[in-house]
Design brief:
Ca(2+) 1 binds at residues 72, 75, 77, 79, 81, 97. It is found in: Secreted. Its main location: secreted. It catalyses: 2 a phenolic donor + H2O2 = 2 a phenolic radical donor + 2 H2O. By secondary structure, the protein is mainly alpha-helical. The protein folds into 2 domains: 42-169, Peroxidase, domain 1; 172-312, Orthogonal Bundle (Peroxidase, domain 2). Helices cover 45% and strands 2% of the residues. It has 14 helices and 2 strands; from the N terminus they run H-H-H-H-H-H-H-H-E-H-H-E-H-H-H-H. It has a two-stranded antiparallel sheet. The protein is globular and about 55 Å long.
Amino acid sequence: MPPYSAQLYYRYVLAMLLILCASAGCGDAQLTPTFYDESCPNATSIVREVIQEALQTDPRITASLTRLHFHDCFVNGCDGSILLDNSTNPNSTIDSEKTAIANNNSARGFDVVDNIKTALENACPAVVSCADILAIAAEESVVLSGGSSWTVLLGRRDSLTANRTAANEALPGPTFTLDELVANFLAVGLNTTDLVALSGAHTFGRARCLTFTDRLYNFTGTGSPDPTLNSTYLEILSEICPQNGNGSVLTNLDPVTPDTFDSKYFSNLQVEEGLLQSDQELFSTSGADTIDIVNNFSANQSAFFESFGESMIKMGNISPLTGTEGEIRLSCRRVNGESYGLTATLVAEY
């Protein structure tokens, strides 16, 4: 083939590829578990080591990191947007999701994410996204707390902005009814089994009194306790969270094994010891199809672990940025090229 013909041929091939990209979307790359096998083969072990170190002084960190992944994915997809601080750049205003109702003085673990990012940047500069850090950290946190692993799909890229308004609207609240929970999960493509399985993450971690005190003293404005709350458990919670007391006091989501990832959460629901209204709704809503799922997970921990992993994979696939979309942030708290700004101090909940 003459040289000029070869040149025309390659130009033709390139043109066809560009046409295909325009029609199919080259940014729509699929997530894969092998994404960092060559570019950062030790990514998962690096994440694990940082979490293990954090666990030495903070037994709640695994629950907190798992929750961060959940709260990231439910707002504009799994894009690391929850990690962004308020912007100080007038040309790139970022209204941090950290100050949304469900996150403010509640979401935590950002310093550990920073440490993970620093360790990964030292090993593999500008390679591993913050969104993927959250996905890996969630899986490693569950395993380190006694749960089973699942295949973490990778290849997400980081958002260039946050969405506090969407965070206020999209994140489920502790007083949600079952119908509200089902609709909330359905809005992001997750079904009822996913709802029950992912709610099982409340088998470890803590919650503040203000998230459930209405159940103790004035449930739905009745002036009485929630009738689905075990009377003995009510007395215990009333001592921890007295009426008109400090709403920031913490208590265990799972009173039996608070720092272990197991199926005790579902056993607690069966005896009306779900801490949050949104927990107990899964079992105490008359005629709900979630009751059988709760019973199954309580009796069969392996079934819970398997479903939890499957649901985490589904959740991790909610609208990820891939290909050339977004960026790989060098700091999880700000977009690349932006000056660093401080956000509001966040206090622990989970």
